[in-house]
Every structure is written in structure tokens, then in C-alpha cells.
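dumping this here before i forget
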Amino acid sequence: MSGGEDLDAVWKALANPTRRRILDLLVDGPVTTGELADEFSDLSRFAIMQHLGVLEKCDLVVARKQGRQRFNHLNTVPIQQISDRWISRHHRTLATAMIDLKTTLESLADARDDHQEETGELHERDTG
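structure:
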């Protein structure tokens, strides 16, 4: 996969909940295909292998064969590329908007308190 421009396959792979769960199971280290299949009692080993094939094609999983076992490793590079390209940029925009909203609300609250002090509304409300 080149740069961060061709990430459509990664998005498609991440759209599937089974594939996301497989990636979650690989976070702590490599897992054999058999161990992954054991985690999905509702799916066949063949179905798990198909999901692993999709994940390998988009570089989210790297498989290494050791004897008769196949160890699946998580490759976080495509996820980091997605984060760098889309998520972090929008996160910054949203964070800036939230800071601006907080500043505006604090200014309005200060102005309200000042107005109530000047007019004595606060005292009247407190004393009933």
C-alpha cells in the first residue's frame, strides 16, 4: 500500500465487526489462526481465514508461518495513516470548537453575574 492515499481497502476492512474484533484480539501480540477461530464459536475456521485474508490484503495483519502454525500479527501502520490523514485533523477542529464554546459560555456567565450584581437581582433571589 502506498503512502496514506490508498486506504479504501483499510476502511472497508474496518467496516466489518468480525474483522475489528480480530484486530482487537491481536493487540496484545501474535495469535494463531486456530486460536482466533476458537474465539468465534459462531463462525467456521474457513470464515476466519477469509477475514484474515481481507486483513492481510490491506496490510492490517501480517502472517508468519512457524511449523504447522500460522501466527497473525497486527500491523498498526494503516490505522496510524488513517488517524493522521482524517481523524486527528477533525479531532483538532472539534477540540478548537469546544474550547471556543467553553470560552463563550464562561464569558456569558460572567456577564450575567456582573449584571445581577449591578442590579441587585442576585441579592433579591438569595434572600427570597
